Amino acid sequence: MSCGEPHEMDCSEVLDHLYEFLDREMPDDDCTKFETHFGECSPCLEKYGLEQAVKKLVKRCCGHDDVPTDLRSKVMGRIELIRAGEAVPEQDLTAGRDMPAAADEQPSPNEK
Q1: Same domain, 56 and 31
Q2: How far apart are the first and last CA of the chain?
Q3: Residue 56 within any structural domain of the chain
Q4: What is the distance of C-alpha 43 from the center of its chain?
Q5: Taking the CA of residue 84 as centre, how many other CA atoms within 13 Å lie in the half-sphere pointing to its CB?
Q6: InterPro entries annotated for this entry (predicted)?
Q7: What is the CA radius of gyration of the chain?
Q8: d(CA 107, CA 97)
Q9: For 45-93, how does the pLDDT look when each residue is reduced to its tens digit (9 = 90+)?
Q10: Distance CA 59, CA 95 (A)
C-alpha cells in the first residue's frame, strides 16, 4: 500500500510496525515519525484508523477475559521468535486445550 508520494518512512515499514505504534511499544522518536507519516499518507492513515477501531472493539468485547499464563507465555515466545527472524513451529498454541484451533473449526460431535 502506498499513496505514490515519497515519504521519510516507507509505507511498508509503517504497516509492518503498525501494532507496535498502536500499542505504544516503540520509542517516542519513532512514534513521532509514524504520526508525521500518517499526516502525509492517507492510505496509511486509513489503515491505522481501521486497526485502531478493531483494537478498541476487541478490547471492549474481550478485554475482561483472563488469559491463561501458559498461553500468554507461548504467544509471547512466538512473537520473540518472529521478531528475531527465527522459524516458528507450526504447532497450534492451543494444543491440548478444550477449544478448536481456529474460529471456523467446529468441535466434533463427541466434544459437544
Answers
A1: yes
A2: 44
A3: yes
A4: 18
A5: 9
A6: Anit_sigma_mycothiol_RsrA, Znf_put
A7: 18
A8: 12
A9: 999 999 999 989 888 887 677 778 899 899 888 888 888 887 766 665 5
A10: 25
Count how many domains the chain has.
2
Residues 28 and 71 in one domain: no
Q: Are residues 55 and 82 in the same domain?
A: no
Range of the domain at 78: 66-97
Dihedral angle over CA of 103, 54, 71, 65, nearest 10 = -100
The grid coordinates of residue 52 equal 485502531
Residue matched to cell numbers 515519504: 7
Predicted local confidence at residue 111, as pLDDT: 47
C-alpha cell at 97: 486445550
Same-domain pairing of 73 and 92? yes
Q: How far is CA 7 from the centre of its chain?
A: 24
